[in-house]
Amino acid sequence: MPGKTIFVLGGARSGKSAFAERLVEQSGLDAVYIATGQAYDDEMRERIAVHKERRGLVWATVEEPLDLTGALQAHAGEGRAVLVDCLTLWLTNLMMVERDIAAETARLASMIPELPGTVLFVSNEVGLGIVPDNAIAREFRDHAGRLNQAVAAAADEVYFIAAGLPLKMKG
Amino acid sequence: MPGKTIFVLGGARSGKSAFAERLVEQSGLDAVYIATGQAYDDEMRERIAVHKERRGLVWATVEEPLDLTGALQAHAGEGRAVLVDCLTLWLTNLMMVERDIAAETARLASMIPELPGTVLFVSNEVGLGIVPDNAIAREFRDHAGRLNQAVAAAADEVYFIAAGLPLKMKG
Amino acid sequence: MPGKTIFVLGGARSGKSAFAERLVEQSGLDAVYIATGQAYDDEMRERIAVHKERRGLVWATVEEPLDLTGALQAHAGEGRAVLVDCLTLWLTNLMMVERDIAAETARLASMIPELPGTVLFVSNEVGLGIVPDNAIAREFRDHAGRLNQAVAAAADEVYFIAAGLPLKMKG
Predict the structure, then answer these.
(1) Mind listing the pLDDT tens digit for each residue in A55-69?
(2) What protein family is recorded (chains A, B, C) (predicted)?
(3) What's the pTM?
């Protein structure tokens, strides 16, 4: 049975993660959380802690900064909802170790239609401000935009979140 | 009689203030403008002046950089439309005097359902660009996102404005 | 016969150009591409090259960094779809040679209802991030917002693009 992919896109502090978590909780499926964020510094550590606290205790948590496709293959399954939070942190991690982003993007996008169960991806929209001064930020912005486009094209449902409220863009 | 709260969210120069002003003018209610902006420098002074010019003369204007909940208590009322422009400038002012932003956000959100008459809040969405370099800008972005979520959750209608056009997100 | 104007607004790497190009290709009209971008540096040159490659060979291409209204007068016509990509690069070019942006914006907006055939404008939304540090970036952001509002007001259809997906805002 083919699975279902939901893509949740939004800005910083837009409520996108909470929205995705509610979708999982309402599904009644077994919940698995794939965290792509690494606890680099205190600020990040605090955010991850707040994030963990908001989720209920019934979630299984997997931390996977780089091998997202491997983690999805290992954890997606019938009767499960796997929440990946978030794609832009995964992209940051990939760029730090100089992976081929276009290849990673293509690999993720091509596996989405094959994944069993329900899979939700959370990602940041980062392209709606002024062009960044430094070249790495511009490169990141380009990669993130292409990654978001690829996942949105492969997903069954897409939501844009602002101020905690969803706009359905697809599905 | 319970009042009605309208939240207008948008980017810089998106036409969000003009949209909110049109809603007030079409309401036929007595219009009160609560300006949270202080005329810090020439650029800001000019913006406030342009802003004043666009509004008609029938508006009463209140300048209140910090005590927004007090101003709302004093000015909201049956038969009135109070326009607060804007929440992100209020947030800036609060941060400059080191107020407890979470507490201020909660206080504003909790009073919204009790306000009489029509109240409109204008705010900037600031979370859709690249992560800012400096920590204060990141902190501002986090506070603004949470404030926008709280007001959107309490509001009866929410609009996202881009290029002068509204997308209705709630109500 | 009055023409039709379509305005496509979106972030960096949002898929806005590809969306506009698909609209042109689906129209079956003769396609003309007005590129406002100048090949300033290698990064820009590469983007323009990728852009050219994605379009089919049946497109006529015009490069016009400054005199956009002249190019529209010369190339818009019955049975044609003219795609202008993009307005924010045109704005950048105008600012570099210190043109009167308000006047250029008004001139473009006022000619839109008179243009024959189909004309599509692509533009960046740049106002949804943190306030930029430097004054020129703030000025650019203000001009871009006002330009987008003016074109959106004059257009028959307006789309906001995120992650390659359109939200119809008008028409």
Answers:
(1) 655 678 889 999 999
(2) Belongs to the CobU/CobP family.
(3) 0.93
